[in-house]
Amino acid sequence: MTTLGLLGAMDEEIALLLADMESKETLLHSGITFTKGILYGKEVVVCKSGVGKVNAAVTTQVLIDRFEVSAILFTGVAGAADPELNIGDIVISSSCQQHDMDVTALGFPKGVIPFQEVSDFPADRTLVKLAEAACGRICKDHKFIVGRVLSGDQFVADHAVVKSLNDTLGGACVEMEGAAVAQVSHLNNVPYVVLRSMSDKADGTANVNFAEFTVEASRRSYEILRDILEHW
Ligand code: ADE
């Protein structure tokens, strides 16, 4: 049986998955708690990476090396960068890129990792299709789009900043882990997809909205992941 790696950055983002799991066994690696078990009939490892790209990269590599996962699905919340998106709407990653990779002083375009072929890491097309199908079944009151996820080690809470990220890098949403998960998955040839429900619009009200809507948005992302696994 293949094992799926399911991760979120914060407790809110994985709490409902952990609650649904059976035959749970917890293991600690690199300071991260990994919970192995059965979820909707599938063998899974669920974990909380912690916030930011380094935490996400370490967690992803452990999922691949120690648990030999065959695919990685990230669930969580994000700030909307596409002006058409509202709180509660969903972004399924077409790809993920680091928006804070900035070597423009040496002539590299913003977001480009120097001397590397890929900087915008494509998500697995089959996983994207599965996520789209799940959203089609369960997103009744909210939009879902497939778009580029932008990641950086910063909580974006400024309209001018998020507008510029959308204008220059074409980001659908901003968050803090996806591109690290994507890059490590790419390096190891493991398929991945990131699912993000919008908790805020990454503008001047983002801190207030994030606090208010994170639990609800996390639930929406969880429901999509659950539906994907139920139809796997
Ligand atoms: N996650 C949720 N909202 C975010 C934001 N505005 N910036 C970065 N990460 C986020």
Automatic annotation (TrEMBL):
UniProt keyword Hydrolase, yes or no? yes
The EC category is: hydrolase
Q: Which BP terms does GO give this entry? A: L-methionine salvage from methylthioadenosine; L-methionine salvage from S-adenosylmethionine; nucleoside catabolic process
* Residue intervals of the Nucleoside phosphorylase domain: 4-230
- One short Pfam name that applies is PNP_UDP_1
What InterPro entries would the database entry show?
Answer: MTA_SAH_Nsdase, Nucleoside_phosphorylase_d, Nucleoside_phosphorylase_sf
Q: Which domain of life is it from?
A: Bacteria
Q: Which UniProt keywords apply?
A: Amino-acid biosynthesis, Glycosidase, Hydrolase, Methionine biosynthesis
Please give the GO cellular component terms listed in this UniProt entry.
cytosol
Q: Which Gene3D superfamilies match?
A: Nucleoside phosphorylase domain
Q: Does the keyword Ribosomal protein apply?
A: no
Alphabetically, the GO molecular function entries are: adenosylhomocysteine nucleosidase activity; methylthioadenosine nucleosidase activity
> Might you give the EC number(s) for this enzyme?
3.2.2.9
SUPFAM superfamilies given in the database record: Purine and uridine phosphorylases
Q: In which pathway does it act?
A: Amino-acid biosynthesis; L-methionine biosynthesis via salvage pathway; S-methyl-5-thio-alpha-D-ribose 1-phosphate from S-methyl-5'-thioadenosine (hydrolase route): step 1/2
Q: Which CDD domains match?
A: MTAN
PANTHER family, A to Z? 5'-METHYLTHIOADENOSINE/S-ADENOSYLHOMOCYSTEINE NUCLEOSIDASE (PTHR46832), 5'-METHYLTHIOADENOSINE_S-ADENOSYLHOMOCYSTEINE NUCLEOSIDASE (PTHR46832:SF1)
Return the protein name.
adenosylhomocysteine nucleosidase
Instruction: Please give the organism.
Output: Paenibacillus zeisoli
